Amino acid sequence: MKFISKIKITLRKGILDVQGKAVENALHSIEFPMISNVRIGKFVELEIEANDKNQAYELVDAACKKLIANPIIEDFEIELFEV
Amino acid sequence: MKFISKIKITLRKGILDVQGKAVENALHSIEFPMISNVRIGKFVELEIEANDKNQAYELVDAACKKLIANPIIEDFEIELFEV
Q: What pTM, to 2 d.p., does this model score?
């Protein structure tokens, strides 16, 4: 079976987001002073072949922990859809 | 009123995703040959002060077009939640 997975990767609370801070400052300097607390993460989409949804989830979770995300400073959230 | 916005930014179809391809090759070289079509985008979270949800949406949409995303090569999808 084939699945599509969408993964949101966010910096953990307490980790300083320098990229987000830079974007926030840039927004304030144009016409968006009402925007605050900008945090920038990653959004990964991938396809995966697996026997069932559970196996697909386990594989994507393992791939995130090993390579896609950095679990020391990032949290991730996995969505799975059968195609 | 205060809103939280979550924005998914993805490379448009047809735009070569070199970062995604590199991650895919790395996944294939460890124990994940069943993963394919890796595409890497951005996931932005921010807070915004606005009079109502429509105004908040318009402001976030304008900020994405002007600074947060690159509309020539990226698509974006905005979610808004009142806090």
A: 0.93
